[in-house]
Design goal:
The mean pLDDT is 86. Helix content is 14%, strand content 36%. The protein is mainly β and 146 residues long. It has one domain: Nucleoside Triphosphate Pyrophosphohydrolase (Alpha-Beta Complex), CATH 3.90.79.10. Strands 1, 2, 3, 4, 5, 6 and 7 form a 7-stranded mixed β-sheet that branches. The termini are far apart.
């Protein structure tokens, strides 16, 4: 069964090895869903919901768990879009590699957890979006939001 590491152990491990994470891209006629971060790193910046893949958890299970934990909804994967290497990011804690998936909300209404203060759908990236998400403007013409 997948479980989260205690904070001290988490920091110790990921200070020495890359962390695998997943990010969820939800898109509808209003644009792309972004969430305003309420915890470090990047407090007050817009980002894609996401998080660490836990030990003994599949990537698909991680995507579904993140949908539940961060957004309060059930999601399913439409397709894999790309990876983001947070190797030299000033916003990231350590070296993370995120797998970005387009997902659809299957059930529920968005209810944010403690990590975020608000959400919105955007056709144009807000100025206070994490710089690593600039690729959203060019990854595919159907994702262009500027």
């Amino acid at each position: 069964m997948a479980t989260k590491l205690p904070e001290e152990e988490y920091r110790d491990i990921y200070a020495k090895a890359p962390r695998l994470a997943v990010e969820l891209l939800v898109k509808n006629e209003e644009g792309i869903l972004l969430v305003k971060r309420d915890i470090p790193p990047g407090i007050g910046l817009w980002y894609l919901p996401g998080g660490t893949v836990l030990f003994d958890e599949s990537v698909e299970e991680a995507v579904q768990r993140i949908g539940q934990e961060e957004l309060g909804v059930e999601v399913s994967i439409i397709k894999f879009l790309r990876f983001t290497d947070w190797y030299q990011s000033k916003n990231s804690t350590g070296h993370s590699v995120s797998l970005v998936f387009e997902v659809k909300i299957d059930q529920g209404e968005i209810k944010l957890d403690f990590q975020s203060s608000e959400f919105g759908y955007f056709k144009k990236l807000p100025e206070d979006t994490m710089k690593e998400y600039q690729y959203l403007n060019s990854i595919d013409p159907s994702y262009a939001i500027l």
